[in-house]
């Protein structure tokens, strides 16, 4: 009997360690994405200010920069509103005692990663496309090459997000059972 209790304690500790590691990775991703977004916001805001001060006749760069800034602000908002899991949740709601809460967290992470193409990539790539149109002009070959490059990058990043979502779902199912949580 004591051997089973020791094994149960090890499994609980192991689950909490795995969840703690996942939360650390999520927080690291959130900080990295936020830092990059803030740097890009500053760069594109300076471009808008420079374009206005120089009274550019080309408004595409200003519009594109505005769309990029909007997309990055949307990204930061969703990261810290929907994807953020405070470390205090691990001690306040231990995974072994509150498995449904953690299933929900992991399900939400996977769902938002699956939808990243919509809330993150689409607005960002649209803004970059508009911005680069102003830089490269409206030559048909430039537009086609730019569009193909963006589609290639978009699909690559989308696939990475889908792979991450699948891994989170596999972890969720392995750690907490494969019953679905909404």
Q: Overview of this structure, please?
A:
This protein has 182 residues and is an all-alpha fold. The chain is 84% helix and 0% strand. It has 6 helices and no strands. The mean pLDDT is 90.
Distance between the termini: 36 Å
Mean pLDDT: 90
Give me the Rg, rounded.
22 Å
Number of strands: 0
pLDDT < 50 stretches: none
Question: Could you give the order of the helices and strands?
Answer: HHHHHH
Structural class computed from helices and strand pairing: mainly alpha
Oligomer: single chain
- Major beta sheet summary: none
Tell me, what's the shape? elongated
Level of helix content? over 70%
User: In percent terms, what proportion of residues is strand?
Assistant: under 5%
Number of helices: 6
In short:
This protein has 6 helices and no strands.
Question: What tags apply to this protein structure?
Answer:
mainly alpha; 182 residues
Secondary structure: elements and pairs:
Layout: H1 2-53, H2 60-81, H3 88-92, H4 99-114, H5 116-136, H6 140-176
